[in-house]
Amino acid sequence: MIDWKDMLARGGLAATEKRLLVVHALAEAGAPATPQELLAVLGAKLNRVTLYRILDLLVEHRVAARHNAGERAFRYCLSAGHEHHAHFTCSRCGHTECLDSGQFGDGLSALLSHLPMRVDTAEIRFGGVCRGCQGG
Ligand SMILES: [Zn+2]
Ligand SMILES: [Zn+2]
Hints:
The protein is of the alpha+beta class. It has one domain: Winged helix-like DNA-binding domain superfamily/Winged helix DNA-binding domain (Arc Repressor Mutant, subunit A, Orthogonal Bundle), CATH 1.10.10.10. 42% of the residues lie in helices and 14% in strands. The chain has six helices and five strands; from the N terminus they run ααααββββαβα. The chain has a three-stranded mixed beta sheet with strand order 4-3-5, with no helix packed on it. It has a two-stranded antiparallel sheet with strand order 1-2. β1 and β2 (75-78) form a beta hairpin. Residues 32, 65, 77, 85, 87, 98 line the site of one zinc ion.
């Protein structure tokens, strides 16, 4: 069981009720979600402006990751303790998922740490055909 308050604390953020709502919604989504999808889940508990503000904050503090899956809207997911993680987007059904590749992410962090510049963001997205779509 993940401690959401602890997750926020590690990002240097106080665990306010609204932040916890957003972190929980991101976890429940199970896949990178758009603000639209999150709003659909959160309903009346949070307005759009507040949601965007909290998402920005979570990204800034590396609790969540923001990435572009080639759509109009950004997608958000929890960083799950890894500074960097990769994503996969299926070219047939358009589904995007987080690759739970701790080793990969940590390897990337190690690689980046050797660079003379400070890298704040790294976006790695694999494209191909997901398991579900390979059947047909
Ligand atoms: Zn697919
Ligand atoms: Zn992700």
